[in-house]
Design goal:
single chain, alpha+beta, Mth169, Chain: A, 3 strands, Phosphoribosylformylglycinamidine synthase subunit PurS, ATP-binding, EC 6.3.5.3
Length: 89
């Protein structure tokens, strides 16, 4: 079974309160290397069969119309992942 990954991030001009909370919490954990965080969403779409260009186009359409809010979010990635690296639970 193949998987398509869709990553969605808030548009740059949109405030990200979760990201700000995370970056403020880092120093309390001794993490000082990062000055900013943007939190997004990741979707994994399972595909029975081969991932063709048509299937990828359908995934892009779903990402732009259903998985993201185009007013405040950008779809930043739609790609196929290799399942041979991940173990089934």
């Amino acid at each position: 079974m193949a998987r398509i990954v869709v990553d969605v991030m808030p548009k740059p001009e949109i405030l990200d309160p979760q990201g700000k909370a995370i970056v403020r919490a880092f120093p309390h954990q001794g993490i000082t290397a990062f000055s900013g965080v943007r939190q997004g969403k990741r979707f994994e779409l399972e595909v029975d069969g081969e991932v063709t260009e048509e299937v990828l186009a359908t995934a892009r359409h779903a990402a732009e119309t259903m998985l993201s809010n185009p007013v405040i979010e950008d779809v930043v990635n739609v790609s196929v992942i290799d399942n041979s690296d991940s173990a089934e639970a």
